[in-house]
Amino acid sequence: MPIQVGCLGNCSFCVTKIGRMGFGRVKSYDMDDIVNAIANAVNRGAREIYLTGQEISAYGRDRGYDLADLLEKILSRVNGRFMVRLGMMEPLELSRIIDRLLDIVRSDWRVYRFFHIPVQSGSDRVLMLMRRKYSVDLFRDIVMRIRKVFPDATIATDIIVGFPGETDEDFLLSVKLIEELGIDKVNLARYSRRPFTEAAYMEQVPEQVKKERSKIATDVFNRVALERNRMFIGREMWGIVSEVDFKGENYVVRSYNYKPIAVRRADIGAFVKVKVTDATPQRLFGQLLESESLSVKYRVDFRITEGLDLVS
């Protein structure tokens, strides 16, 4: 469900603002229209609702309300068993509503405990070069607020390595930030020039250096993700059967905190209980214990497949 387009930023590497809407402009869709569309989708059988946009934390800034208002209205007006996933939220805009948002998520099980907050770099100096609107400390504070309320929440972020002007010290600050905060999932990208952007004319980091940093970061981020995922081994978790993996061999359960759990068989759309048996950096594996859409409760032996590549 798209809820807005545009953003309030002016990042030096962003080409979207040039090709689409420009700096500092947000267009939010009407709150009642969004709620009605979601209600219709749920009535037709939808079980997962993804709120999407370029910067959903800026939703409503052009209309006099905000994302928390929208989420409250969705949950109060749409009846049924479904899950809502929040899309990407920029740190500065999210900081304005984070406490209200956490209260809403805490009060209603229908919102995934999942937060995608792009930090891009662990160095304040690089963030200034990127023209990001927040500091590393602000990002850290948001993550710690979330962890205090939901220790098992899934937190995802984005990191760019090799941004123009990034030094080895800057790069290591990014790596250490992910280690310090135990970020569950990192979308890692090597910087590449975009035409007509400010960053394209800055002094570039050599490609070989970017490749080396990317490999180091990938190894560290996978280790951190594995440490987080191993915390869930042995636990019973509930979630919704979201999809079949691309090989057609396993089903993917999205748990209440949006962790992907591979099981051998299940009914798409069913709410289930799963016992986690193993973990990799990318996913969990489990045994199906209970399912709302089956007439009997059953257990299934699950064959662990380490190389399975689930849709993330």
Structure described in brief:
This protein has 312 residues and is α/β, with parallel strands linked by helices. The chain contains 9 helices and 12 strands.
Pick out its properties:
312 residues, alpha/beta, 23% strand, disordered C terminus
What is Rg? 20 Å
Termini separation: 19 Å
Helix content: 25-40%
* Annotation field: number of helices: 9
Question: How is this structure best described in words?
Answer:
The two termini are 19 Å apart. By secondary structure, the protein is an alpha/beta fold. The radius of gyration is 20 Å and the shape is globular. The protein contains 9 helices and 12 strands. A 5-stranded mixed beta barrel has the order 8-9-10-12-11. The chain has a 4-stranded mixed sheet with strand order 2-1-3-4, covered by helices on one side. Strand 11 (271-279) and strand 12 (284-291) form a beta hairpin. The longest helix is centred in the last third of the chain and has 24 residues, at 207-230.
SSE blueprint and pairings:
Blueprint lengths: L1 E6 L8 H4 L5 E4 L2 H13 L4 E6 L13 H11 L5 E4 L4 H5 L2 H10 L6 E3 L7 H7 L5 H14 L4 E8 L6 H14 L3 E6 L16 H24 L5 E9 L6 E5 L4 E4 L7 E9 L4 E8 L21
Parallel strand pairs: 1-3, 3-4, 5-6, 6-7, 10-12
Antiparallel strand pairs: 1-2, 8-9, 8-11, 9-10, 11-12
Helix pairs in contact: 2-3, 5-7, 8-9
